[in-house]
Amino acid sequence: MDKALNEFTGTVRRAVDDYNMIEEGDRIAVGVSGGKDSLILLLAMNHLKRFYPKKFELEAITIELGFEDMDFGPVEELCRSLDIPYVRIKTDIREIVFDVRKEDNPCSLCAKMRKGALNDAIRERGYNKLALGHHFDDAVETYMMSLLFEGRISCFRPVTFLDRSGVTQIRPMIYAGEQKISNLAEKLKVPIVVNPCPMDKASKRHEIKTLLKTLSADYPDMKSKVFGAMQRYPLPGWQPEENWRLKKNKKDS
User: What class is the 3-252 domain?
Assistant: First the structure.
């Protein structure tokens, strides 16, 4: 097994342990968009499955948005080589978002429809958890987007239980930086599927990503400090399980 993937999986395991993301007997579906993040998550979860003390099942699911020229054949071949069940769900999300609704903020509707389709698919297939490829940089960017564009302090949670679907979303890569993921994807030559979405470089997230990159040139540890503040504040669901136990032990002593 590649040393780099083994090291990366250690980072994933730390997040899984800190936030108690996996329980014995879980049936976990990895949402695979075809991008580097979801593909590296799939490889790391498959590697983790080999030695993690709590046994779990793994499957890969792709929600096809309806864009032409997105070939998921190489992803299917990767899953076959790893003996990971893989299902592709065809949708008309692109048509609804861009042609029918003609949304001013297409990213928001697309994300909601994509997650809804994912949750429906894994519930129908009997999986109780959905692993998403959000990472360290995504968390910091989402926090800053909420602060600057909405005037509130908020971010997605490492673990989120969805009452309506009964599905628990987990984000095992929240301790992994985007550059580390990119480097590993290049090293392992994962079959990345290019997304032709016209909003790819024109979204609010891209604006924040550019801003943080500029600020980080003068303040290299800025994102780490923001992430640490999210855990210490803490935002709901962001205090690691270990810290909760330490706090409880102090109160009981």
Answer: alpha beta
